[in-house]
Amino acid sequence: MHLEIPKLNFPVHHTRELKTVFEALPKIPLACFSWDTPTSKPDVGFKIAHNNETVFLHFQVREDEMLARYSQHNQPVYTDSCVEFFIAFNDDPNYYNFEFNSLGTCLAAWGPNRNQREPIAPELLDQIQTRTTTSRLNQGQSPRFDWQICIQLPVSVFIHNKISQLSTTKARANFYKCGDDLSEPHFISWKKIETSTPDFHQPAYFGELSFL
């Protein structure tokens, strides 16, 4: 699986500009349930672009249950309603995990596998800009929630790689949605993971990215 990341032809400084950019991009579905499929499937999609200095991500989620408890960086946001972006650059065996709950709180680290992770410092994570919105789609006894998050990841957060510009850069990545503490946990990915139990820390199953 290969994904080409389009390059924006202008710098993005304002939320209105970024919203316009995302409206023009195709939405890529997150629809791979590598393990148990929940009875109520979340509807998840993402969009991605860059402008050489920043990776722009937009996730849209519709799900029956939401959790949003953590407000400090590097808290366990994966137990909330959470979207995630794991990426490794070029031939580096190490990868970054960036995980966001619907408040925009980020947990991030770097390393070669699940057990060997080096946290990204909170002051560096403060350089990531996020904007979130949440809507309740109905008022009945079975509500459904729509939440969206726009994320701007500057190249400075990829602190272990010397990236002067993203254009022509090759990478491997996967995109995820989870919620470990929901009443019915789910684990959704862009690219299928072939392990017996849920585990997003599987760089062997990353897909290919090309920054145009």
What does this 3D model show about the protein?
With 212 residues, the protein is mainly β. 7% of the residues lie in helices and 39% in strands. It contains 2 helices and 13 strands, in the order E-H-E-E-E-E-E-E-E-H-E-E-E-E-E. Strands 1, 5, 6, 7, 8, 11, 12 and 13 form an 8-stranded mixed sheet that branches. It has a 5-stranded antiparallel sheet with strand order 2-3-4-10-9, with helices on one face. The longest helix is centred in the N-terminal third of the chain and has 10 residues, at 15-24. It is globular and about 50 Å long.
Can you give me a brief rundown of this structure?
The protein has 212 residues and is mostly beta strands.
Using brief descriptors, characterize the structure shown:
single chain, 7% helix, globular, 8-stranded mixed beta sheet, mainly beta, 5-stranded antiparallel beta sheet, 39% strand, 13 strands, 212 residues
Q: What's the structural blueprint in terms of helices and strands?
A:
Blueprint: E1 2-5, H1 15-24, E2 28-30, E3 43-50, E4 54-63, E5 82-89, E6 95-101, E7 106-111, E8 118-119, H2 122-125, E9 129-136, E10 145-154, E11 170-178, E12 187-189, E13 207-211
The amount of helix comes to under 10%
Reported for the largest beta sheet, the result is: 8 strands, mixed
- Tally of helical runs: 2
- Beta fraction of the residues? 35-45%
- Computed CA radius of gyration, to the nearest angstrom: 16 Å
Give the CA-CA distance, first to last residue: 16 Å
Order of helices and strands: EHEEEEEEEHEEEEE
How does the overall form come out from the CA principal axes?
A: globular
Spans of at least 5 consecutive residues whose pLDDT stays below 50 are none
* Structural class by helix and strand composition: mainly beta
Beta strand count:
13
Mean pLDDT, all residues: 93
